[in-house]
């Protein structure tokens, strides 16, 4: 597999050794010590090029702060959240946004193209959110996972719920506005549909790239249902059936936390205006806001 241009997405042991200017034996030692990012998905050792680049950058040593050597654009990526999007603007943080799904946000952190990302990725267990994905995608990285809010996630339906949909099984044969690969809502929908009995639905193509796009598809009658948070359903005056309370976290480069843009955002999130906005949007629980769930080395 190759990314744009001629650089491969994954490197072999020999290519990693050549890139790092070390012997192949040393690469095997690093793998054995779990000191270098590696995949064994195919039965062979494959090394994601972007993660190797990030791994090398993280191990720069000099008398100052090694994180400061890596310039990152003041951009917030990941999954769109209406409360976060609003707070980024209202706080005067001057942080630009590029919301295109939780996994895309992690990819942009790995590549050094963002200072933070919002994610809501369920783990293997229903109560396990985000941490495993961060540890897998950013092993050993100096990132902090901070809780933003817990949100009610579920089915967005036309006003009045004319089809009487109350659970995932009721979606069988219906038109569903799905999300792109890597979106947290896509991960949830795939898990729900592949439950014990399995549910076959007609997914709209192309998939919606935001929760607002899901709501518009339902509002316009193009979809019978979609997956989004309660706040989006309320914004578009649509019906909502809650299915899970998820944890939406901010994944932040540790150095960025102490810089003015993130400091402005975090300070604003402590104001009465922020709490009022969360109540107006609906479906938010801020009781754990600011709690650190992971603090990388």
Describe the protein's architecture and organization.
The chain has 297 residues and is an alpha/beta fold. The chain has 2 domains: 10-59; 72-297, D-Maltodextrin-Binding Protein, domain 2 (3-Layer(aba) Sandwich). Helices cover 34% and strands 21% of the residues. It is built from 12 helices and 12 strands. Strands 3, 4, 5, 6, 7, 8, 9, 10, 11 and 12 form a 10-stranded mixed sheet that branches. Strands 1-2 form a two-stranded antiparallel sheet. Helix 4 (82-90) links the parallel strand 3 and strand 4 (96-99). The chain is globular and about 65 Å long. Residues 1-5 and 61-66 have low confidence and may be disordered.
Q: Can you give me a brief rundown of this structure?
A:
By secondary structure, the protein is of the alpha/beta class. The protein has helices at residues 13-20, 24-32, 49-58, 82-90, 102-110, 131-137, 184-193, 211-219, 230-235, 254-257, 260-268, 272-281, and strands spanning 10-11, 47-48, 75-78, 96-99, 116-119, 143-157, 175-177, 202-203, 225-229, 239-253, 284-285, 292-295.
């Amino acid at each position: 597999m190759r990314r744009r241009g001629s650089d491969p997405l994954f490197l072999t042991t020999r290519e990693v050794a050549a890139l790092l200017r070390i012997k192949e034996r040393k690469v095997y030692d690093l793998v054995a010590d779990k000191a270098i990012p590696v995949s064994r998905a195919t039965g062979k050792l494959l090394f994601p090029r972007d993660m190797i680049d990030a791994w090398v950058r993280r191990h720069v040593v000099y008398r100052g702060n090694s994180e400061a050597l890596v310039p990152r654009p003041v951009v917030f990526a990941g999954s769109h959240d209406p409360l976060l999007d609003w707070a980024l603007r209202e706080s005067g943080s001057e942080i630009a946004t590029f919301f295109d799904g939780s996994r895309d946000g992690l990819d942009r952190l790995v590549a050094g193209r963002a200072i933070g990302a919002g994610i809501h990725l369920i783990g293997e267990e229903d109560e396990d959110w985000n941490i495993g994905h961060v540890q897998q995608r950013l092993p050993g990285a100096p990132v902090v996972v901070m809780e933003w809010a817990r949100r009610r996630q579920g089915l967005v339906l036309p006003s009045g719920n004319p089809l009487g949909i109350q659970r995932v099984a009721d979606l069988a044969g219906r038109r569903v506005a799905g999300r792109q690969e890597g979106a947290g809502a896509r991960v949830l929908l795939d898990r729900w549909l592949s439950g014990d009995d399995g549910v076959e639905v007609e997914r709209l193509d192309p998939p919606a790239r935001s929760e607002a796009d899901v709501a518009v598809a339902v509002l316009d009658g193009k979809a019978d249902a979609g997956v989004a948070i309660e706040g989006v359903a309320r914004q578009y005056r649509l019906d909502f059936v809650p299915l899970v309370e998820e944890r939406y976290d901010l994944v932040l480069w540790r150095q960025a936390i102490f810089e003015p843009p993130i400091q402005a955002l975090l300070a604003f999130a402590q104001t009465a205006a922020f709490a009022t906005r969360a109540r107006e949007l609906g479906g938010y629980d801020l009781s754990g806001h600011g709690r650190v769930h992971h603090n990388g080395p």
